[in-house]
């Protein structure tokens, strides 16, 4: 069902799917003062991630929680005190409407209810594994090297799910980023809170967004990732976290 601040998908699988950046929605009475061209970019929404999450939920029979506000309104994949929680600039694009934003108000209206919804889903479904679905742009507009990976697996200290996931994807001949295009040691807010803090094996999946920008790409990566997630879930009883 569709709620104001989160989209819930019910399912019987013990793999819980999360998608923090599924939407480009800007709620009424918030004016970011940017054009539609900016709202179509990766800085506003993880292109393809929402559709991929829904496809995976259907394929796996998994419950899922998807955000329904743009990351430019508030970035739900940040700690509440993070400087980029309400961005005033993102990949070189100014977000003038956020300069005087009331941080506490946006946390109360959007951030806290979203994370409370995830907590509620965890209590009701008691997942054995959590997978967060994201996408990344092949190259940032503000410069930097091209990102050659087709998919990245991100994790912080608990690598029980990440290690077999990386192995499974490499064995398929894919170009896989190990804590790339950025490190889960530095940015892992949602899974730190809902996975590691609760002792639940977890991983974040980053798919390059040009590979999931249409229905054919979504279908292909749903095939790839549904098989991987099922295999990782089945292997978890035999995995031991590496010493870190």
Automatic annotation (TrEMBL):
Pfam families linked: FGase (PF05013)
SUPFAM superfamilies noted in UniProt: Zn-dependent exopeptidases
GO MF term list: hydrolase activity
Taxonomic superkingdom: Bacteria
Keyword entries, A-Z: Hydrolase
Keyword match Ribosomal protein: no
Range of residues in the leader sequence: none
InterPro entries registered for this protein in UniProt: N-FG_amidohydro (IPR007709), UCP029730 (IPR011227)
Name of the molecule in the record: Putative N-formylglutamate amidohydrolase
């Amino acid at each position: 069902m569709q709620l104001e601040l989160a989209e819930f998908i019910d399912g019987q699988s013990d793999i819980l799917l999360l998608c923090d950046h599924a939407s480009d929605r800007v709620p009424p009475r918030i004016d970011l003062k940017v054009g539609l061209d900016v709202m179509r970019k990766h800085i506003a929404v993880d292109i393809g991630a929402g559709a991929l999450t829904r496809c995976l939920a259907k394929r796996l029979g998994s419950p899922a929680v998807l955000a329904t506000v743009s990351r430019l309104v508030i970035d739900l994949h940040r700690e509440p005190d993070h400087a980029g929680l309400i961005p005033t600039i993102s990949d070189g694009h100014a977000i003038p409407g956020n300069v005087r934003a009331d941080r506490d108000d946006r946390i109360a209206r959007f951030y806290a209810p979203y994370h409370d919804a995830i907590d509620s889903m965890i209590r009701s479904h008691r997942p054995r594994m959590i997978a967060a679905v994201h996408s990344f742009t092949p190259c940032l507009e503000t410069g930097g090297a091209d990102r050659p990976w087709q998919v990245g697996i991100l994790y912080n200290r608990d690598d029980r799910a990440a290690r077999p996931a990386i192995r499974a994807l490499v064995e398929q001949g894919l170009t896989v980023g190990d804590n790339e295009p950025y490190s889960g040691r530095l940015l892992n807010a949602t899974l730190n809170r809902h996975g590691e803090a609760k002792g639940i094996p977890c991983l974040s999946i980053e798919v390059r967004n040009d590979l999931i920008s249409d229905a054919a790409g979504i279908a292909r990566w749903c095939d790839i990732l549904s098989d991987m997630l099922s295999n990782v879930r089945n292997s978890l009883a035999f995995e031991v976290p590496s010493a870190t």
